[in-house]
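Progress note, sequence design subtask.
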C-alpha cells in the first residue's frame, strides 16, 4: 500500500526539508553537548568549539575510571569526617566562663579581743596607801615607839601587807585597842592596831592587799590612825621601815 505524499504548493515555503549545511551544524552541536555532559559526569575536561568553518570538537578523555574512584574516596572521606568526634579527655571551658575574672570575696576578719592583763599582786604592799606618816619607829617620850603611825580619815580600809594566816583578831591590850596579827610563815608577823572595826577572824588565810579592817582610834590613841608593826617572832618588834623597803614598799620613814 502506498502512502500519500504531502502536496507542496509552489508558493508555500518548504519547512520540512533542511539545507545540508544547517543539518551538519545541528549534528555537531548535539555531539558537542553530549561530549560535555560525559566530561562533566566523569570529572574530565572537554573542549568544544563550533563554527561553520571549523571541524567538529573532540572530547578530551582523561582517565575516567581513576577519577571516578577518586571521587568515590573523596565522598567517603567527607562522610567519615562528618561523624561525631569522640569526647576529649580535657574539659571544655566556655569562653564566657574562662574570660570572666574571678571576683575576690571579702573574708570577714574578726578583730582579736584584747587580752585582759591582770597585774600580778606584789608579795608585799603598803597597808594603807596614801597615808601621812605621823610617827616613825624609835624612842618617843622616853619609851620605844615600836612601829610606824599612818594617818587617814577614820574608816579608811587597812590592807594585809602580805599573804599569811590571821593569828589574833581583837583587843590586844597594852593600849593597842582592836588589833590583827598576821603570821607570814617566814618567822615574821605584822601587827595592825587601833582599828575601829575588824574584818577577819583567827585562822583565816589572807592575801597581800586584802582588807582586814578599818582605821580607828581604839586603845591609847589621840586620833584615828594605823599603828603598824613588824615582829621577828611574837612581840619582838623591829623597825618596819627597812624591812618593808627590803620587800619593795616605802612607808616614808
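Output:
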Amino acid at each position: 500500500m502506498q502512502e500519500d505524499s504531502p502536496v507542496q504548493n509552489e508558493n508555500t515555503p518548504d519547512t520540512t526539508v533542511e539545507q545540508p549545511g544547517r543539518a551538519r551544524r545541528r549534528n555537531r552541536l548535539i555531539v558537542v553537548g553530549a561530549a560535555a555532559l560525559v566530561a562533566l559526569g566523569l570529572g574530565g575536561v572537554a573542549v568544544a568549539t563550533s563554527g561553520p568553518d571549523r571541524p567538529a570538537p573532540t572530547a578530551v578523555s582523561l582517565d575516567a575510571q581513576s577519577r571516578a574512584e577518586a571521587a568515590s574516596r573523596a565522598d567517603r572521606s567527607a562522610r567519615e569526617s562528618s561523624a561525631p568526634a569522640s569526647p576529649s579527655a580535657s574539659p571544655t571551658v566556655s569562653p564566657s566562663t574562662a574570660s570572666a575574672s574571678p571576683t575576690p570575696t571579702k573574708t570577714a576578719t574578726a578583730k582579736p579581743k584584747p587580752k585582759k592583763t591582770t597585774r600580778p599582786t606584789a608579795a608585799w604592799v603598803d597597808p594603807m596607801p596614801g597615808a601621812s606618816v605621823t610617827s616613825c619607829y624609835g624612842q618617843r617620850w622616853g619609851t620605844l615607839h615600836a612601829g610606824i603611825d599612818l594617818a587617814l580619815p577614820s574608816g579608811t580600809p587597812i590592807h594585809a601587807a602580805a599573804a599569811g594566816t590571821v593569828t589574833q583578831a581583837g583587843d590586844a591590850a597594852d593600849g593597842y585597842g582592836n588589833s590583827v596579827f598576821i603570821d607570814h610563815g617566814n618567822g615574821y608577823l605584822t601587827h595592825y592596831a587601833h582599828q575601829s572595826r575588824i574584818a577577819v577572824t583567827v585562822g583565816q588565810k589572807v592575801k597581800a592587799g586584802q582588807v582586814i579592817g578599818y582605821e580607828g582610834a581604839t586603845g591609847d590613841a589621840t586620833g584615828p590612825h594605823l599603828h603598824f608593826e613588824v615582829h621577828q617572832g611574837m612581840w619582838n618588834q623591829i623597825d618596819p621601815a627597812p624591812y618593808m623597803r627590803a620587800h619593795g614598799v616605802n612607808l616614808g620613814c
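The CA atoms of residues 119 and 209 lie 13 Å apart. Work on this subtask will continue into the next period as scheduled.
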